[in-house]
Amino acid sequence: QVQLEESGGGLVQPGGFLRLLCAAFEYTFSRYHMAWIRLCPGKAREAVAALDKYDRITYADFVKGRFTISKDNAKNTLDLQMNSLKPEDTAMYYCAADPNLQYLSPTYTYWGQGTQVTVSS
């Protein structure tokens, strides 16, 4: 079975930095296309960044130049480095996987439980 577990969320001041980690279990990382998807208060889910199994990366416009997605196949981990955080980045952040290409569509098949990121002074 596909298992995903996020960690690294917390409270950070505007302009600060956080690194989120997604640990994957029970499957080979190269078999799935991956993404980070967030749910902001009062809004619909939106994809932040995607990294497919061919190592192609796509970022949402609102995080370009600030966030970096990466993966380590040997460790079965997916990272999201978030710089210059803004209050509007406050959300639950989810790791997601899908055997089919989804790019920045928020409709991935498999999801973790999420990790909370709060940006506030």
Overview of this protein structure:
The protein is built from no helices and eleven strands. The chain has 121 residues and is mostly beta strands.
Q: What is the beta-strand fraction?
A: over 45%
Number of helices: 0
Give me the count of strands: 11
Mean pLDDT: 94
Structural class based on helices, strands and sheet pairing:
mainly beta
Helix content: under 10%
Largest sheet: 7 strands, mixed
Give the SSE order as H and E letters. Answer: EEEEEEEEEEE
What general form does the structure show? globular
The N- to C-terminal Cα distance equals 40 Å
- Radius of gyration, rounded? 13 Å
Low-confidence stretches: none
Key descriptive features of the protein:
seven-stranded mixed beta sheet; globular; mainly beta; 0% helix; 121 residues; single chain; four-stranded antiparallel beta sheet; 11 strands
Tell me the layout of helices and strands.
Layout: E1 3-7, E2 10-12, E3 18-25, E4 33-39, E5 46-51, E6 57-59, E7 67-72, E8 77-82, E9 91-98, E10 110-111, E11 115-119
Parallel strand pairs: 2-11
Antiparallel strand pairs: 1-3, 3-8, 4-5, 4-9, 5-6, 7-8, 9-10, 9-11
